[in-house]
Amino acid sequence: MKKTTVLLLAGGLSAVSACKSTQTESTATGMNTETTTAAAATAEAQLTYPDTKKVDQTDDYFGTKVADPYRWLETHNEEVDQWVEAQNKVTFDYLNGIEFRDQIKERLTKIWNYERYGAPFKEGGKYYFYKNNGLQNQSVLYVQNTLESEPKVFLDPNKFSNDGTVALTALAFDKNAKYVAYGTSSGGSDWNTYEVIEVATGKKLDDKVEWVKFSGPSWYKDGFFYSRYDAPTEGNKLANKNEYHKVYYHKIGTPQSQDQLVYEDKTKPLRNFYGQTTDDERFLILNVSEGASGANALYYRDLNDPKSAIKPIVDNFESEYNVVDNIGDKLLVRTNKNAPRYRLVLIDPKKPQEQNWKVVVPQNENVMGNVSLVGGRIIASYMKDAASEVVVYDTNGKQLNKVELPAIGTVGGFSGEKDDKETFFTFTSFTYPPTIYRYDVPNNKVTLFRKTEVDINTDAFETKQVFYTSKDGTKVPMFIVHKKGLELNGNNPTYLYAYGGFNISLTPSFSIANMLWLENGGVYAMPNLRGGGEYGEEWHKAGMTPNKQNVFDDFIAAAEYLIDNKYTSSEKLAVGGGSNGGLLVGAFMTQRPELAKVAMPAVGVMDMLRFHKFTIGWAWVPEYGSSDDEAQFKNLYGFSPLHNIKEGVKYPATLVKTADHDDRVVPAHSFKFISELQDKGAPGNPYLIRIDVRAGHGAGKPTSLLIQEWADTWAFFYKNMGVNPYAKQQP
Questions:
Q1: CA distance 93 to 91
Q2: What is the Cα–Cα distance from 166 to 202, expressed in whole angstroms?
Q3: How many angstroms separate the CA atoms of 118 and 20, rounded?
Q4: What InterPro entries does the record tag this protein with (predicted)?
Q5: Phi, psi of 338 (to 5 degrees)
């Protein structure tokens, strides 16, 4: 397909994990467990939370009366802004009082300051790549004539704003590399604006396309297709429900008001349409979704025929279909139709019935992930127990070879055109900084292209994968990372992070933020819970409604495994997750509050009865269910974090994280949750919320904000575990 870099995930939630970067040898050689618990308890006892008002609001769900006293926090007005300011004052006063927080920030700043590169890609015979010098808020796009020539800055997103909060979100060159369309997002919002640069001169044209969401520019001749909503009503544009997605065509040199409406469905307000053209611009492909569960319909238009209309290839939402590209007049499609671990099929769009499909690469025991068509070869990435394998086939599906990888980890890349003879990929793992390799397609030769240099002895750490037993007997894999020679004494500070939903797979990747935790003797654990895509659609469905409780049980069992096997104890365990993972943490802490000392639900879906009423939340109904359905309401009400906080229960020390510009999971989820927690939770642990200003769901967050966020996070963890990581080590 036409190469479009889209950095904001469309339709659903994204996995918000520790940012990926690098680090240095620590001045501390281990964790000092000299207790600061008494000090932490004293600090908590002195906390005075804002007086959050309650309103008389009760909803009736099929005879069950549910109070919603903090409904007023769902709006965006001056009163809510004042509440945000008051909550942040309490939180940052607490964080500012942690004696070693500045040392953590200093250390993070030092180890974050390393050069980070993206894999090169070719356009118009030239090479382009992203690079961050170390502490730049946003990575810069460079261009060079050859791999050996001097790179020049092509596009610098750091110039979009003074504070780095306007990010590059999409990039697409036209077929002849005459123009490039790029998207920007302000303050982390999902709303995008597209503009155009003339490649030869670097001149920005007058073209501007606004109110784009869940889309990418896809070129056809002298313009591009994109998808948008109507401009939202003023006053609450970050929370309004998104309905009636439309596909348009923008011609270069014309105002947006003249853009051609290509497709809409006035009878289906909750459908999303994502348009892409094939590399040769023969076909326009529309991926049609009604939710974020992964299943989609597939429409097409033959652009060679000016009289052709958009027609369905698949017009139901039972399976997932992803067009890799066309081979002549047929489409190469990755699908899990009758293949839960995915297969490749060739579909004639004029005869789209399944009996006419040709199976090119059948399903095997591993999960097929990203597929590219480069240099006359099909390059397919697979997951085996959440780690990558790469297999190369000819276009008839004959296996030719496997791509040699340096270790167990995660691969990304292999982009290119059908006739390219080379491509690049990036390999990473928990303690293996992202490293770029060049792949000679005809000769199946892998060579090191660029190694990331970090000031950390990554050989000092080890990674193991264990399989533990969940509540119902299911075996669940978990990666555990720590220093070599770790003593299993039940006293190691441990961070347990997971996601568990939306068919999203968590695979080994390098995080500079996590390295600070590891170098100070901490343990990092990442289980692959049901609801994810690590073992295909069956694994995903095992964690969808009405089976969502399986995900929470898997997470609870992971914590119990770490405690039972003496990695840690309840007093030294922190649990974290973002977005759908924020829901996971919220359910964990309300179901098993005694099991962890610290909880960090970030940008989480906490109100399971009203999530579908805001922005794109309706798209998550296939994953969670809806409170509009009686049976699904009972299921949701049973685990909704907001509705399961009980009076007088001592919950873990909690740092809720959200952002005022989050229009994916609106911040009202976190606002209402922390208000309920502060009101009902028993004293003894702090219940705080950290609200980023001019930030969103996580994508495009500038480096400076990431460093501060993780300094605050680790400081909160250590403080409430009674650990000073920089105290003088005892002999």
A1: 5
A2: 20
A3: 12
A4: AB_hydrolase_fold, Pept_S9_AS, Pept_S9A_N, Peptidase_S9_cat, Peptidase_S9A, Prolyl_oligopep/macrocyclase
A5: 55, 25
DSSP-assigned letter for residue 351: B
Phi, psi of 536 (to 5 degrees): 90, -170
| DSSP state, residue 162 | S
Chosen CATH of 58-110+457-721 out of 3.40.50.2300, 3.30.230.10, 3.90.79.10, 3.40.50.1820:
3.40.50.1820
- In one-letter notation, the amino acid at residue 163 is D
- Beta strand pairing status for 523-527 and 494-497? parallel
pLDDT band at 390; cut points 50, 70, 90:
very high
The span from the CA of 36 to the CA of 490, in Å, is 18
How far does CA 97 lie from the centroid of its chain?
32
Q: Of all helices (H) and strands (E), which one includes residue 598?
A: strand 598-602
Q: Quick one: pLDDT at residue 135? A: 87
> Is 697 an annotated catalytic residue?
yes
**CA 264: distance to chain centroid?**
28
Containing 580, the helix (H) or strand (E) segment is: helix 580-591
pLDDT in tens, 584-637: 999 999 999 999 999 999 999 999 999 999 888 888 999 999 999 999 999 999
218, 470, 579, 640: the active-site residue: 579
**What is the β-pairing status of strands 432-440 and 422-429?**
antiparallel
Q: DSSP label at 542?
A: T
* Among 337, 336, 324, 411, CA closest to 373: 324
Q: How far is CA 33 from CA 490, 520, 718, 727, in A?
A: 12, 11, 10, 9
Confidence of residue 237 (pLDDT cuts 50, 70, 90): low
Looking up tokens 């067009």 gives: 323
Q: Which own/partner contact pairs does 190-193 have at CB distance under 8 Å and 24+ positions apart? A: 190/8, 190/214, 190/615, 190/616, 190/663, 190/664, 190/696, 190/697, 191/237, 191/663, 192/8
Nearest CA-CA partner of 671 in 251, 59, 220, 52: 52
- Longest CA–CA span in the chain (Å) reads 82
Confidence of residue 5 (pLDDT cuts 50, 70, 90): low
pLDDT digit string (tens) for 141-165?
999 999 999 999 999 999 998 888 8
402 and 392 in contact (C-beta within 8 Å)? yes
Rounded CA separation 453/548 (Å) = 41
